[in-house]
Amino acid sequence: MHRTPTPRFRRSQLAAAVLALTAVTAFTTGHAAPAAKYASASHALGTTTQLPRGVTPLHYALSITPDAAASTFKGAAAIKVAVDAPTSSITFNALNLAFAGAAIEGAGGSKQVMRKIDIDADKQTATVHFAQPLAKGEYLLRIDYSGKIGTQATGLFSLDYDTPQGRQRALYTQFENSDARSMLPSWDEPDYKATFALDVIVPSSQMAVGNMPVASSEDLGNGTKHVRFATTPRMSTYLLFFGLGDFERATAMSDGTEIGVITKKGALAQSRFALDESAALLREYNDYFGVRYPLPKLDNIAAPGRSQFFGAMENWGAVFTFEYGLLLDPTISTQTDKENIYTTLSHEMAHQWFGDLVTMRWWDDLWLNEGFASWMESRTTERLHPEWNTALSNVGGRESAMSQDALRTTHPVVQRIATVEQASQAFDGITYQKGEAVIRMLEAYVGADTWRTAVRNYMRKHAYGNTVSDDLWREVDAAAGKPVSAIAHDFTLQPGVPMITVSDAVCSKGSTRVTLTQTEFSKDQPDKKPLSWKVPVIASTVGNGKLAKVVLKDGKATLNVPGCGALLVNAGQSGYYRTLYAPAGTRALAGSFARLAPIDQLGLLADSQSLGMAGLQDPAGFLELVKATPLSADPQVLGRVAASLNSLYEQYAGDAARQQAFGRFAMARLAPMMAQTGWEARAGEASSVATLRGRLIAILGDMGEPGVIAEARRRYAASEQAGEQNPSAMPAPLRRTILGVVAQHADAATWEQLHAKAQQEKTPLVKNQLYDLLASTDDAALAQRALALALTDEPGVTNSPAMISRVSRTHPELAFDFALAHLEQVNARIDASSRSRYFPRLAAGSAQPDMIAKLEAYAQANLPAGARGDADSSVAGIKYRIKVRAERLPAVDAWLAKQTG
């Protein structure tokens, strides 16, 4: 699954995490357990289940007849099951299903009709009782039932969208993590794999899509047809897919597999990039994994709308993606959109192996799916599109994870999951970005070829099965010939961020000798007893190029590094740790900053800012690095400088005089970058320059830079002259950015003009963006109007929660209070998987003390005790933000005064 990206909060960056659960409490108290205990503790209870053991599904024959207009469906399931011991009842998962009847058939033609059925809504189960006990053996369980089609992206749901011909409705499914049970009675847990034969009765004029190719289609003569899909391989319930609508499809062959893209009619041309890149990705993955993609086809399905929970889903053979993650609209799409589409494609295609072919046994090990898919998307993008230089973005992903992982509310990569709500909250930065960063570190430690050998062996050994993390570590240990699992356990079975303190370096005879000490980086527990990790460390001296490596154990190590220049620890940035230098080392690196590789410049900037804000070094040290960054630096480094200055600028929100003082410094630093980049694209410029251009315009507009605001308004006005579109004034790569600046600083008349455009727009991608713009205003009165608009039918049910979230980036208190005052209406517009995290994320950008009490009261009243992880994380983030304002910004003020004094 590709997560819906966490929005960039204008007040600061959200540090989202979930609650550390009971099974890992020892890890959050500051006492590290020996690595040997991890292996036995991580899965000591065996495979988790919420269903009684003893009955196992083998095959589902599933018939569905949807009524899209009535938002209902009828279903009939014939499930082949294995009964391990005599029983008179069978329990399975079911959610919001109405049962008309059930019967069971055994060998020799024996048959029983159900005596009764018990529904447990809290446990999301149904239990069918029979008069006579069933003996051990195989049976066919037949169930007739009906259910509802929802309007949010869970279970079987509908999405309405506008076209020039009128409003259309399409149907799709979304089952991860626990929503297959709302369309079919099932053993809806990842360890219960089975085969699926789906058939549907649908309108003759519409296209039906499943995991497998259509095996047969029969016209029933009454405006409907009976479509049967081929039987799937053995797989988990959450990977089943069904789609239906006024679609069209394009295909290409790659390595013997039919690759397809499916869109609503009229949008197929916008999927060409996705189709071409999917074919190349499949060839790459077939080679890397050493196991060929096993299904005959692989479709990518583009759907209008959006979710607050996810952006794409890896259904085996039928990947579902919202349009913004798959289609390139030439009127609005940017280079960033193209790169994001590619990473979504590569992420979901990686899941066809990591997740679909080999599946985690239970949600505790979700990172085996998501961390590896995130790592594969990065690795493959670097390999197949080196011109994008996306390796540099790995630092940003790691930083996002560390920001969350350094708060007391973090959790281990492998965490104990007990409920559906906890499983939903596990889709976070620790599972994705920390998982990816740990994999990258271990790959660098053992070598890329050794790592690939281990992955190939893991795939071959566990194909069509389920695993836990240690199944992978055994293969890595065997391929590497050394106990890599000891390092892996430290980083996946306990939370937190190691910190390597570097002593003053001593140079002698052409070599630098340094002592490294491991503690722990924490943003809100400065006095906690540090945990212990075995940390692979790579170091070099600036200008030498030769690397020195050591695994730091027991908290300390001495390292001899070739050369006598400034010492750089975590050279290449593959390590998951913070680096704290002695003052002399910091000064030496600042003096050599321009000579560092771009990825190391990014790492040093990130460490410096984070350590400064946490009070572990002078907060102004980061600003000295900003001054040392040359205009000739890589565009992604310049973009990082701009974003970091913007985050500091936003820390001052609510204090106009101090914010303006910092803004003057930041804008003066960014102005030469903007002048160098310019508003107009140059022939042959690197894609990273185009991305930097948009970023600088947005950030300078955010800071209120008069020239940028004026130019954005001028271009917007020129594009609207005499009602004629003027593409040269707002070229597609800058259209969204320019409109964003205009909308952010809009007056009432401009807001109404944008509102009229949104009402008239028929293209879902453009329409969604326009409603987002209405919610992005700095003006509190206009933001209030956007909130009110969000709860009408006008924007569409999937735009409503997105608009409220967008308001919260600028006005978190306003958005949270509004949503809380309209709790029932807002909840009705949020997919169920998001409800435990949506309200906490609205509040997360606040820096007001009273928000803490309001958020805690909301969680107490509305969330189960085990589903308050996002609420706890948001509270921790707000407290940290308040602390930064009180204790760190004065040092920044003092530094600024010296610069101007």
Automatic annotation (TrEMBL):
<dbReference type="InterPro" id="IPR014782">
    <property type="entry name" value="Peptidase_M1_dom"/>
</dbReference>
<dbReference type="InterPro" id="IPR050344">
    <property type="entry name" value="Peptidase_M1_aminopeptidases"/>
</dbReference>
<keyword id="KW-0645">Protease</keyword>
<keyword id="KW-0482">Metalloprotease</keyword>
<keyword id="KW-0378">Hydrolase</keyword>
<keyword id="KW-0862">Zinc</keyword>
<dbReference type="InterPro" id="IPR024571">
    <property type="entry name" value="ERAP1-like_C_dom"/>
</dbReference>
<dbReference type="InterPro" id="IPR045357">
    <property type="entry name" value="Aminopeptidase_N-like_N"/>
</dbReference>
<dbReference type="InterPro" id="IPR027268">
    <property type="entry name" value="Peptidase_M4/M1_CTD_sf"/>
</dbReference>
<feature type="signal peptide">
    <location>
        <begin position="1"/>
        <end position="32"/>
    </location>
</feature>
<dbReference type="InterPro" id="IPR001930">
    <property type="entry name" value="Peptidase_M1"/>
</dbReference>
<dbReference type="InterPro" id="IPR034016">
    <property type="entry name" value="M1_APN-typ"/>
</dbReference>
<keyword id="KW-0031">Aminopeptidase</keyword>
<keyword id="KW-0732">Signal</keyword>
<keyword id="KW-0479">Metal-binding</keyword>
<protein>
    <recommendedName>
        <fullName>Aminopeptidase</fullName>
        <ecNumber>3.4.11.-</ecNumber>
    </recommendedName>
</protein>
<dbReference type="Pfam" id="PF11838">
    <property type="entry name" value="ERAP1_C"/>
</dbReference>
<feature type="domain" description="Peptidase M1 membrane alanine aminopeptidase">
    <location>
        <begin position="273"/>
        <end position="490"/>
    </location>
</feature>
<comment type="similarity">
    <text>Belongs to the peptidase M1 family.</text>
</comment>
<dbReference type="Pfam" id="PF01433">
    <property type="entry name" value="Peptidase_M1"/>
</dbReference>
<dbReference type="GO" id="GO:0016787">
    <property type="term" value="F:hydrolase activity"/>
</dbReference>
<feature type="domain" description="Aminopeptidase N-like N-terminal">
    <location>
        <begin position="57"/>
        <end position="239"/>
    </location>
</feature>
<dbReference type="InterPro" id="IPR042097">
    <property type="entry name" value="Aminopeptidase_N-like_N_sf"/>
</dbReference>
<feature type="domain" description="ERAP1-like C-terminal">
    <location>
        <begin position="567"/>
        <end position="868"/>
    </location>
</feature>
<dbReference type="Pfam" id="PF17900">
    <property type="entry name" value="Peptidase_M1_N"/>
</dbReference>
